[in-house]
Design brief:
By secondary structure, the chain is an alpha/beta fold. It has 11 helices and 12 strands. It has an 8-stranded parallel beta barrel with strand order 1-4-5-8-9-10-11-12, surrounded by 9 helices. It has a two-stranded antiparallel ribbon with strand order 6-7. β2 and β3 form a beta hairpin. The radius of gyration is 22 Å and the shape is globular. The N and C termini lie far apart (48 Å).
């Protein structure tokens, strides 16, 4: 006798598989939902015109001149992505990162062009010195150390310059102590009280930034960033960092990277209830790209699974190089 036809019907009152029976049913009860307007697309803006130079370690990501950055913003908005995050790649670098606050630098020029040509797009600007210093560090180097307070002065100048160009949000990513308060005070004193601050509040010293440094030409020429970026082993410290930044005036707080620190994202969101961002960083993106190019994973499924995990952990905002692709997939 065929055992398949002699099974006993279980007397179950609860069958969880009922709600997984079809795609329509699964969609009806889905707990975590992604939407295009929660994504932020990073753009690397360089000097020149007509420049669209692919980053070798980040397939599908480009260094863009201002005119090409405008096109990228237009494509993002057409897909439903309403926010971009600008990183600058200047031709001139020096030991104090003075191009960071040059009103004609790539970021400032891109802010004006995007706000003019792509109405309604939200422009966020990265505020750090690593892309602008000839030594590649996030601040001013004095006696082979990153000097905190002089670095904050430079970050304030950059933030003012971005706000004056029309940035909606400035996003300090340097992890210097006290920079949020200093930037908030300086913005308010100059009439930019409506310019918001997205703080990279818990930015870890991570191995997953490698491709970004390729894109932004921002690898440190000596040493590392362990003196200011967070130790990957620490989570309670992240909560202290976030709390301080909120006290100093941050409007949005961010955890970076995202996937290795989902526990931190959850703890930050549950503890403070603030708008919480997470950065799906270059190394996370490039790993998926490399595996997909080898035929080892389904890139579309893996992309959406990763972004869903970040959202499920508690992130309200996801910065990702997959922003447009994910929006189209949704």
């Amino acid at each position: 006798m065929n055992p398949i036809h002699t099974h006993t019907t279980l007397k179950l009152t609860k069958r969880l598989r009922r709600l997984r029976h079809s795609e329509s049913m699964r969609a009806l009860v889905r707990e975590t939902r992604l939407s295009a307007d929660m994504f932020v697309l990073p753009l690397f803006v360089c000097e020149g015109e007509g420049v669209r130079r692919e980053v070798p370690s980040m397939p599908g990501v480009f260094n863009l001149s201002v005119d090409q950055a405008v096109r990228a913003a237009e494509e993002a908005v057409a897909a439903g992505v309403r926010s971009v995050l600008l990183f600058g790649i200047p031709d001139h670098k020096d030991d104090i990162g003075s191009s960071a606050y040059d009103p004609e630098a790539p970021v400032q020029s891109a802010i004006r062009a995007i706000k003019r040509e792509v109405p309604g797009v939200l422009v966020i600007t990265d505020v750090c010195l690593c892309e602008y210093t000839d030594h590649g560090h996030c601040g001013i180097v004095i006696d082979d150390e990153i000097a905190n307070d002089p670095s904050v002065d430079q970050l304030v100048r950059a933030s003012i310059s971005h706000a004056a160009a029309g940035a909606d949000i400035v996003a300090p990513s340097d992890m210097m102590d006290g920079r949020i308060g200093a930037i908030r005070q300086a913005l308010d004193e100059r009439g930019f009280e409506n310019t918001a601050i997205l703080s990279y509040a818990a930015k870890y010293c991570s191995a997953f930034y490698g491709p970004f440094r390729d894109a932004a030409d921002s690898a440190p020429k000596f040493g590392d960033r362990r003196s200011h970026q967070m130790d990957p082993a620490n989570a309670a410290e992240a909560l202290r960092e976030v709390e301080l930044d909120i006290e100093e005036g941050a409007d949005i707080v961010m955890v970076k990277p995202a996937l290795p620190y989902l526990d931190v994202v959850t703890r930050v969101k549950e503890r403070f209830g603030y708008p919480t961002a997470a950065y799906h960083v270059s190394g996370e993106y490039s790993m998926l790209k490399a595996a997909a190019q080898h035929g080892w994973i389904d890139e579309r499924r893996a992309m959406l699974e990763c972004l869903t995990a970040i959202r499920r952990a508690g992130a309200d905002i996801i910065v990702t190089y997959y922003a447009v692709d994910a929006a189209k997939a949704l």
